[in-house]
Specification:
Radius of gyration: 23 Å
Helix content: 25-40%
Number of strands: 12
Oligomer: single chain
Distance between the termini: 45 Å
Number of domains: 3
Order of helices and strands: HHEEEEHHHHHHHEEEEHHHEHEEHEHHH
Structural class: alpha/beta
Shape: elongated
Bound molecules: zinc ion
Largest sheet: 4 strands, antiparallel
Length: about 375
């Protein structure tokens, strides 16, 4: 299989440290700069092969061997360049759009299709946001969701408070949780109101609704609902959160904490993980805080447009699972479509963790990654 320049360019953006680790190098050293390992090109006693994360290269200071991640794979696996590409694509679950390989013409379109970019910019800038005080007035951890996330053992009390603060979780009068959709420009698109049972699973009889449907008489004149990923505001370049504008915020400690947490994720590029449910994003953000966890709200709501604000970030998606692998296929199709529409800087990656490791019984329950991890740890305990 021959790969086009765009795919190769994307593969080049993979971390050479992760590639070396996958190849079985025993990496030493700390810090952001790089790592060292025993050099396979000479009889090495001390780790003298250096990997530069920033430059994406390796170099041995004893024998002079050097190269990029493709060379590393080719030498280690004794394979050709296309085989190295194929190995990288498989090992890192990189989404490749095969039908754009055909001609140089279609590549050009993909990279610099101005119409597409314009549309996305236009649609984003035309968002009419809701009043941010709706968010600040709703902030609370009294919803059944928040209470049960702790009582069911998903989160500790302090983790829940931290997560609720970062994600701006709200509560309705009847105990529903409000998952606010706030974008990276801090604009409030709407809020999804959902109801949970005391075991922290969705209440079947109580259908989700939207804040903009509940306050029809108070909507801005030109309001049309445009969904965005839940948690997108965590990628905001500005420090201000709806919190800091709100009246609720007399609590200084909270403010400091939210400012700190927001600024700590604005490392560019962030590794952005996308899951189906808001619940998963909230819980995983506390379990794996090095990543930014976003949710699309459901399989049917996952659309290529949602990924437009993320073109400069490293994206990994985690589909739920089912008996036939249908959810995985649908997510993959959306990613391929997004790949055609937008010029992502890094390879899009899709996790097949559940497809590979969930049992048939778990698949038939359409298990998500949170419950999968939870059930694994319970088995071990
Ligand atoms: Zn060497």
């Amino acid at each position: 299989m021959k790969y086009d320049d765009l795919t190769i360019q994307k593969l080049r953006e993979l971390s050479i440290l992760e590639v070396a680790e996958k190849l079985g190098f025993n990496l030493k050293g700390l810090g952001d700069e790089g790592r060292r390992a025993l050099c396979p090109y000479h009889d090495d006693q001390h780790p003298s092969l250096h990997f530069s994360k920033k430059k994406g290269i390796f170099k041995c200071f004893v024998c002079g061997a050097k190269g990029d991640l493709f060379k590393l794979v080719m030498d280690d696996r004794n394979c050709t360049f296309p085989e190295a590409c194929e190995w990288l694509i498989n090992e890192f679950h990189v989404v490749v759009v095969t039908n754009t390989i055909a001609t140089p013409h279609s590549q050009g379109e993909n990279l610099s299709d101005k119409t597409d970019k314009k549309t996305s910019v236009k649609s984003v800038s035309s968002v009419v946001p809701l009043d941010p005080t709706l968010v600040s007035r709703s902030l609370s951890v009294d919803s059944v969701f928040c209470q049960s996330a702790v009582s069911a053992g998903y989160l500790s009390q302090s983790q829940l408070r931290h997560a609720a603060n970062r994600y701006c979780l709200g509560t309705t009068k009847d105990g529903g949780v409000i998952f606010w959709q706030i974008d990276d420009l801090q604009r409030v698109h709407s809020g999804k109101v959902m109801y949970y049972q005391p075991d922290c699973h969705r209440s079947k009889g109580h259908h989700p609704t939207w804040v903009h449907c509940l306050i029809k008489d108070q909507l801005p004149p030109d309001f049309t609902f445009q969904p965005c990923l839940f948690g997108l505001h965590l990628l905001s370049k500005t420090i201000a959160t709806p919190h800091s504008q709100g009246e609720n915020l007399s609590d200084r400690t909270n403010k400091k904490e939210s400012v700190k947490s927001v600024s700590s994720v604005v490392k560019n590029p962030s590794v952005v993980c996308i899951v189906e449910s808001e619940k998963s994003a909230v819980i995983l953000s506390e379990k794996f805080p090095d990543f930014v966890w976003l949710s699309c709200g459901g399989l049917q709501s996952f659309k290529p447009e949602l990924l437009a604000p993320l073109v400069n970030h490293k994206i990994v998606v985690f589909p739920d699972t089912d008996e036939t692998g249908e959810a995985y296929k649908q997510w993959l199709a959306v990613l391929q479509q997004a790949q055609r529409q937008y010029a992502f800087k890094y390879p899009l990656r899709i996790s097949n963790l559940l497809e590979q490791h969930a049992s048939f019984e778990q698949k038939s329950r359409k298990i998500d990654i949170v419950d999968f991890l939870f059930e694994v740890t319970q088995k071990l305990a």
